[in-house]
């Protein structure tokens, strides 16, 4: 959990989502300009508000349902952004692929590297549970391979596209892997994800019923605001990417950065407090949920509206992805990490971002 206050509701978590819905109703779609900048600020605020309200509800219902609520909230944000951009802008078959790829690389290297550097600078050797980290990787590696690599090597249709039966199978496989992981994380092997030494990471006060009920209602409003504002900002985003001459894949990177923003702040804060296990749970958990739940949801909508989805990444990006998982296996294979590992991950994150702008 990211530490949401449980005895009050911050005013901005109510005002911004409502403002977002009203702004969409008044403005509709916005082109590149000051208005789009203002809507973008409200969109980011609505994302933060949605995660805050999800945390409050999660603390109220407790585990294992709290973890599921947080994962579903993040997934709705990502899927909502992708679907809104699909419906509101020019056709972009590779948007889901680009956003998922970006989420995996930014989590695996950017966020993980930042957390390791922060933890190592303050505490030299940071500790975590190998079983927990390996459980994340055991699910994340096949998820990423099924969605980002396999479509390039099947012959029923030209890559990077899948036939309908193949897309259905991949979607079901993603759901099965995520469901199995969630069961292990919250039931059979919950101890794998607890801090080194056992016990709970941080004691959270349980919010009252009134605050939880208000947060549940505002969670719906905040998620609605995110989806509507993303649709309103679709033209401005595409114009902005075109104006700077950036590849269209940058749109996916922006979506992933927005989705990961709240959990990134919580993960880095936990690392600064020498709670690297919490950082790993937040970071790698976000990546697993981004693929395991987003792919089936977006695939279903794409099939419904008749829009194809390009999934497979390029050979160069496939090589970088393979290197990324190899380095991650080394990093998380001992239960201890240090500053050097963090720097290596940050360099690989920079390599990925550079390769997006200079493919």
What does this protein look like?
This protein has 359 residues and is mainly α. The protein has helices at residues 12-27, 34-61, 65-88, 95-123, 130-149, 164-188, 209-243, 249-272, 276-292, 294-305, 315-331, 339-357, and strands at residues 126-127, 336-337. The chain has a two-stranded antiparallel ribbon. It is globular, with a radius of gyration of 20 Å.
Structure summarized in a few sentences:
With 359 residues, the chain is mainly alpha-helical.
- Quick one: biggest sheet? 2 strands, antiparallel
Mean pLDDT: 79
The tally of helices reads: 12
Taking all Cα atoms into account, the compactness measure Rg is 20 Å
Strand content: under 5%
Keywords:
359 residues; mainly alpha; 2 strands; 1% strand
């Amino acid at each position: 959990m990211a530490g949401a206050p449980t005895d009050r509701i911050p005013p901005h978590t109510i005002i911004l989502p409502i403002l977002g819905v009203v702004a969409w109703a008044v403005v509709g779609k916005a082109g590149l300009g000051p208005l789009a900048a203002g809507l973008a600020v409200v969109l980011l605020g609505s994302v933060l508000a949605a995660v805050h309200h999800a945390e409050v509800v999660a603390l109220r219902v407790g585990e294992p349902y709290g973890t599921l609520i947080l994962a579903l909230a993040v997934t709705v944000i990502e899927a909502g952004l992708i679907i809104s951009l699909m419906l509101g802008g020019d056709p972009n078959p590779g948007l889901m692929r680009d956003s998922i790829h970006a989420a995996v690389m930014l989590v695996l290297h950017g966020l993980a590297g930042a957390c390791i550097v922060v933890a190592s600078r303050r505490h030299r050797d940071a500790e975590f549970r190998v079983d927990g980290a390996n459980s994340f990787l055991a699910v994340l590696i096949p998820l990423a391979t099924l969605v980002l690599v396999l479509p390039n090597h099947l012959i029923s249709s030209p890559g990077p596209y899948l036939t309908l039966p193949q897309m259905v199978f991949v979607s079901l496989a993603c759901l099965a892997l995520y469901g199995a992981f969630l069961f292990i994380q919250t039931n059979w092997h919950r101890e794998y994800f607890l801090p080194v030494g056992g016990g709970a990471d941080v004691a959270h006060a349980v919010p009252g019923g009134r605050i939880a009920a208000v947060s549940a209602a505002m969670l719906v409003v905040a998620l609605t605001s995110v989806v509507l504002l993303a649709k309103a900002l679709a033209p401005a985003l595409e114009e902005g990417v075109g104006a700077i001459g950036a590849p269209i894949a940058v749109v996916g990177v922006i979506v992933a950065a927005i989705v990961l923003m709240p959990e990134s702040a919580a993960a880095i804060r936990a690392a600064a407090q020498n709670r690297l296990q919490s950082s790993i749970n937040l970071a790698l958990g976000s990546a697993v949920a981004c693929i395991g739940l987003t792919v089936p949801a977006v695939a279903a909508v794409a099939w419904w509206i008749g829009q194809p989805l390009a999934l497979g990444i390029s050979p160069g990006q496939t090589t970088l992805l393979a290197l990324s998982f190899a380095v991650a296996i080394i990093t998380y294979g001992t239960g201890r990490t240090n500053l050097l590992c963090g720097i290596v991950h940050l360099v690989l994150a920079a390599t990925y971002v550079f390769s997006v702008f200079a493919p």
